[in-house]
Every structure is written in C-alpha cells, then in structure tokens.
Design goal:
mainly alpha, two-stranded antiparallel ribbon, 5 helices, 2 strands
C-alpha cells in the first residue's frame, strides 16, 4: 500500500493526524513521511490497525464503507472499514471452533 492510499483511508476515517502520531509515539512530521512513502511498512499498518481496533486486512478492502467501527483515538469518533463485519464474524467462528477443539482434546 502506498503512503497516499494509506493517508486517504486515515482521512476518510475522520481520525486526527496529530492524535494518530501521538498514539504511534512519533512526531507528526514522521507520520507525514509515512504518507509520502512508496510502500508503507507492514509494522506501521499493524500498529495503526491496533490503535483503531480493526484488522490489518481492513486497509486492503477498498477503503471506508458504512460498516461502523469504534475509533479508540478520538473518543466518540467512528471509523468505517470495508469488510470489518465479515472479518469479525469469521474471527468469532474461529474462536468457537478452537474452543470445541480444546474441549475435545481434554477428553
């Protein structure tokens, strides 16, 4: 993902750049440098996804949609990322299957 694509997603989410930089523990200028990169490092995407409370794959789903997800940065701000609900449902199903497998192994 390019820095420009990444910046567009962050802007559409309504997230404040200064707040994101602060949560990442970097200066706003350093975040601006990320937005000008030819390829955003996966570690940066992982950190931002964690801050936003969404899976990293959300950044690759075509951007923002109407599926609302709480944004942990700005209080009551909301972030929408394509496919989040489907990924959340999949993760819940995996968790249920793992629980069943663990119970079967205990027997």
């Amino acid at each position: 993902m390019t820095g420009k694509e990444f910046k567009d997603i962050i802007e559409r989410s309504g997230m404040r750049m200064n707040a994101l930089a602060e949560k990442l523990g970097i200066m706003p200028q350093q975040l601006n440098n990320v937005f000008h990169a030819a390829d955003v490092k996966s570690g940066t995407l992982e950190k931002v996804a964690e801050i936003m409370g969404v899976p990293v794959s959300s950044f690759y789903g075509g951007g923002v949609t109407n599926n609302q997800v709480n944004n942990t940065i700005g209080g009551d701000n909301n972030v929408s990322l394509n496919g989040y609900d489907a990924l959340k449902k999949r993760d819940e199903q995996i968790d249920r299957l793992l629980t069943i497998i663990e119970k079967m192994q205990e027997k």
